[in-house]
Amino acid sequence: SPQGPFHLPGAVIRLSRWKSYRQELLVYLEHFLQALLNGDPLCAPASRTEATWERFISCFREQGLISPDVPDAKSCRYVINATASRPLCFILDDNFYYQSMRYEVYQLARKYSLGFCQLFLDCPLECCLQRNRARNQPLPDEIICLMAKKIEAPNLDKNTWEQNSLTLKGLEYTSEDNLQVISLLVTALKNPVKQIEENIEQKAADRAICAASILHQADQTFRRMISQTMKDAKDKNVLSSEMKILAEELNKLKAEFLEDLRQGNNQKYQVWLTNSEFPSKVTTSFQQESDNIVKKYIF
């Protein structure tokens, strides 16, 4: 059954404090997961903020998920009472206005093969301001407005890891919305994030970074080579009218080389993209074709 959210007392908390608080909660949550999955007692981390750790522990204790390891004693060890037959859901009640903040939670779910889902409440700004003003300890209006500008909605087209997301629109939520939320949780429980996805995503990201780096290197190298070739041609008294045509031909050659590298149209380019000898081989090939072009103007 879903577990209750974590709440902070007080009214205005600086965003920098929220960041450190959020990071600390993720550390504690992973600490709990490790104890739960290994069947170990939950022990207080050596590095902790006592007040934050106590709030964290209270959340689980109030729901009967943990109990002191030593009855009637103030202990830093707790027995986890969760059973395998009981679905356990952690609801992180926070704005998570940047995708990067939510991605940290996704990484934690992936690391331990847990289900992951997102619920995005798309509420109009004016409604948010009205509800905030009705709170016992409201935040300043400017903070709500700033949050509205910063918040990044789930992007299912761009981020595959956000596919299991639900956006609820409107001022009031109905029983149909409740059914959608329950369906979202059930889907997450039945489809835990696979650890192997980390390798696939990381390899794809690494390949993209490598390819972009190689293309950048090639572009810079070709530019330097063209500049030197043009200087040599000028020293050999190539006519200025022909210098312009020569430059156009060399730049066209550069564009063709880069496009072939980008598209992998030729087997040799594919080898270069994965071979440590890429720089010398590609520059040699480019230099040879450049020389063939220059010969037309010198001889």
Describe this structure in words.
InterPro entries: KTI12/PSTK, L-seryl-tRNA_Sec_kinase_euk, P-loop_NTPase, Ser-tRNA(Sec)_kinase. Residues 236-267 form a coiled coil. GO terms for molecular function: ATP binding; L-seryl-tRNA(Sec) kinase activity; tRNA binding. By secondary structure, the chain is mainly alpha-helical. Helix content is 60%, strand content 6%. It has helices spanning 15-38, 50-62, 99-111, 125-133, 141-150, 175-190, 196-235, 240-263, 267-274, 278-298; strands at 42-43, 66-68, 77-80, 118-122, 165-169. It has a three-stranded antiparallel beta sheet with strand order 1-3-2. Strands 4-5 form a two-stranded parallel sheet. Strand 2 (66-68) and strand 3 (77-80) form a beta hairpin. Helix 7 runs antiparallel to helix 8 (240-263) and helix 7 runs parallel beside helix 10. The chain is elongated, with a radius of gyration of 30 Å.
